[in-house]
Amino acid sequence: QAKSPARPRHPEVLLRRLMDDFACVNGNITASDASEAAPALIIVTGLIGIAFSVFLLKLVSSIALDVASNNEPLVGSEPINGADVAEQNARLLELYAAITTGANAFLRSEYKLCGIFIVLAFPAMSVLIAWGDKEDGKWEWKNGWLSGVSFVVGAITSIVCGYIGMRVAVFSNARCTVGACDPSKGWTRSFNTAFRAGGVMGFSLTGIAILALYILLAILRTAFPDSDEGYKQLMDVVAGFGLGGSSIAMFGRVGGGIYTKAADVGADLAGKVVQDLPEDDPHNPGTIADNVGDNVGDVAGMGSDLFGSFGEASCAALLVGASSPMIVAAGWGALMFPLTVSGVGIVVCLITNFVATGLSPVRKEADIERVLKTQLLVSSLLMTPCVYGLAVALLPSATCGGCTGGFYIGSICSSRINAFLCVAFGLWGGCLIGFVTEYYTSFSY
């Protein structure tokens, strides 16, 4: 059966709708009070992260380099006299000094090369970006030089994060040994020392990264107009921040990795095969080189790598946000939503940190896996409602137009809930990957 033709709309109705569309600019979205408070949240949480890392460092440094500081003999040994204690302390300090000297020497040489790379990459990157962004034959020198500045800031921050991680790791290694000398609480004290030392790098890295990126954004923001196109150019320029961090991470991970693997293989061949020495025997000089490489590659390199990942992910999310006129209309705080998530994550991890060292500490070897898995689970549970609150408070919701109740990202109508779900799926996906990886790699299974 043929359908009856659609009735023509009344001209007045069409005219009214047309006028409403013209009156509805960016969904009538305006900046909220919460959006204006976002910069303060980012700065405060970044400072909290740095302050808490200093607090953890003080706890680690309070441990004296004395194996008898607990007034107990070594685990499984007979009571020791003063001469034995002095000899063990001297040996401990000797190995500690050797690893520290080696790690400092390696990083000093590596960071010299990184400095040369930064000096050469800065003008080359600036010129290439200025040439690539040219319009009508005119080179965009502002974009080029500011991208180069962002690259340098990211690279230097990555070097600082890697150096802090390496120094803290070397500083805490000997103190973990001292903690393990307690026959009754050796597992608790050694794990807490190692966990707090790792927290120094984690909290300081995140705090420094958030503050460095936000300060860079605030400064470069003055060079561009407060418009949709201006914010797009700003985020394009700031993307160099993540590239700088990743470039230094490559030096740390690859350079340190090659060094430690070469030392490890050399120590095994010369020590275990030729001289029949046990693995990691201090009589083998290659063992010291192996430990130096572990600290440089697995700690300093990992610190720079984590910073690079943070910088790249944050800059990518900022660029996506700047592509939405509705998010731009919601204010500077809405654009800073990715950084607020990282900032609140510092506070959540701070709370979770006390679960591992206070509420549910390690008392025996089997507790280590349980405590670390608890960290993953508790932090994910606490972070989920925080992300939801940030999404509702900062992201916009149009009151008119074709995306009422949400906001456009390009031609896609998104919403606060969709943004929350994206972060939540990544959060719990990472947690799940952690549990699955632990299941397939742990000796417990």
Model description:
By secondary structure, the chain is mainly α. Helix content is 76%, strand content 1%. The chain contains 12 helices and 2 strands. A two-stranded antiparallel sheet has the order 1-2. Helix 3 (82-132) packs parallel to helix 7. The protein starts with 10 loop residues before the first helix and ends with a helix.
Could you give the topology of this structure?
Elements: H1 11-23, H2 33-61, H3 82-132, H4 141-180, H5 186-221, H6 228-274, H7 285-322, H8 325-329, H9 332-335, H10 337-359, H11 367-394, E1 407-409, E2 412-414, H12 416-441
Antiparallel strand pairs: 1-2
Helix pairs in contact: 2-5, 2-10, 3-4, 3-7, 4-5, 4-6, 4-7, 5-6, 5-7, 5-10, 6-7, 10-11, 11-12
Summed up, what is this model?
This protein is mainly alpha-helical.
Class from secondary-structure proportions:
mainly alpha
Compute the average pLDDT: 83
Portion of residues in beta strands equals under 5%
Strand ordering within the main sheet: 1-2
Oligomer status = single chain
The total of beta strands comes to: 2
Using only C-alpha atoms, the radius of gyration works out to 27 Å
Shape annotation: globular
In whole angstroms, the N-to-C terminal distance is 68 Å
Which range best describes the helical content: under 10%, 10-25%, 25-40%, 40-55%, 55-70% or over 70%? over 70%
User: Helix and strand string, N-terminal first?
Assistant: HHHHHHHHHHHEEH
Q: Biggest β-sheet: count, sense, barrel? A: 2 strands, antiparallel
Q: What are the segments in which pLDDT stays under 50 over at least 5 consecutive residues? A: 17-22
State the helix count: 12
